[in-house]
Amino acid sequence: xxxxxxxxxxxxxxxxxxxxxxxxxxxxxxxxxxxxxxxxxxxxxxxxxxxxxxxxxxxxxxxxxxxxxxxxxxxxxxxxxxxxxxxxxxxxxxxxxxxxxxxxxxxxxxxxxxxxxxxxxxxxxxxxxxxxxxxxxxxxxxxxxxxxxxxxxxxxxxxxxxxxxxxxxxxxxxxxxxxxxxxxxxxxxxxxxxxxxxxxxxxxxxxxxxxxxxxxxxxxxxxxxxxxxxxxxxxxxxxxxxxxxxxxxxxxxxxxxxxxxxxxxxxxxxxxxxxxxxxxxxxxxxxxxxxxxxxxxxxxxxxxxxxxxxxxxxxxxxxxxxxxxxxxxxxxxxxxxxxxxxxxxxxxxxxxxxxxxxxxxxxxxx
Length: 366
What we know:
The structure is a single chain. This protein folds into two domains: 7-127 and 304-327, Rossmann fold; 131-299 and 334-353, Dihydrodipicolinate Reductase, domain 2 (2-Layer Sandwich). It is globular. Strands 13-12-11-7-10-9-8-14 form an eight-stranded mixed beta sheet. Strands 3-2-1-4-5-6 form a six-stranded parallel beta sheet, with helices on both faces. 36% of the residues lie in helices and 23% in strands. By secondary structure, the chain is an alpha/beta fold. The chain has helices at 16-27, 41-51, 59-63, 81-89, 104-116, 131-141, 161-165, 173-176, 180-196, 278-285, 305-320, 328-346; strands at residues 7-12, 31-37, 54-56, 70-73, 93-97, 121-124, 148-156, 199-207, 219-226, 231-237, 249-254, 257-262, 265-271, 352-353. Helix 5 (104-116) packs antiparallel against helix 12 (328-346).
C-alpha cells in the first residue's frame, strides 16, 4: 500500500554524492527528504538548510527521526555495511550507493541483514534508468540481435591527481574497493551484465599508470566469456585525458544485429529485420557529434534525474510489494565481475572462473 504523503527519506553521508541524492529526492514523486546525517555538523547543516530538513550528527538519533522510512547510503564504499545493518535493524528500507560494498562477504552480510529484518535493499545504479538503456534491454529481450557474439564496455575516463588526493579513501582497497573499475566503471559494467547476461570467465591486466598515492588501478583491460557463449572486452580507466571526457559505451553485436550505446544515446542501431519504429528511436536517441561524457572528466558533471528515477523505482516497488530493478542480488553482480578481474590482474592475467567463492586477496598495483 502506498504511504500517505509519500515516503520519508534520510541521507547518510554529506559529500558530493549526497547532494545528488538530495536533488533527486526533492524532485521525485512519492518521497520527500526528511533528514540528513553526517559526522561533520557543518555538512549536515548545509544540506538541511538547503532542503528544509532535519540535521543529525548522531546516527542512532537520525534513525529515530519521526517519519523516516528510507535511508540512502552515501558514505565511502568500504563503510556501507555498518550503517546499512543499523538501519535495517531499525526497520528502515535502504537505497545504497554503488558498489554495495567492497567485498563479497560484506555484500552478502548486507543482503542477509535486510532479508532478516524484512526491509528492502535497493542498489543505486542510476544508469539502468536511462531511456537508451531500457530501449536497449527491450531489443535484446525481443531477440533482435539474434545470437549475441560480442559484448563490450568502454570507460575511458580521466581523473586528476587532485581528485585522488581530495579524499583519504580514494583509490584504496579498504574504503574504495579498488580504482577505475570499482569506482568509475562499475555503472557501465553493471549495464553490460544487465544486457549481455552472466559472465563465466575473465582474463585481465591492470596497473597504476599515471597516478600516485593510490593502491588500486587507474587502467584495466579484461577479456570476458559469457555464459551465453559471447566473448567481450572491458576497458576501464581514469588515465585517458580529454578536456570534456569520453562517453562511456556499451556495444553488443549478434547474428541479427548490432547496437552501440554511448551514455544515453545510440551510435549504431542496425538489424537484419527493420521495424517501423527504428527510425523514431534513432531520431530521438541517436548520438549527436561531440559533447562531453557524463561524469567522464568531471565527477560532478552528471544529472540527478537518473537518481530520481532510481528512487522512484524503489518507491513503486514498495507500493506494489515487489522488487526494485536493482535489489541486493542484482547489485552484487557487477562487484563480483570486478573482483574477478582484480584476481586475474593481480595474478598476471591468469583466467578466473565465476562465481567467486570468496573475495580475492588484494595488494597495491605498482
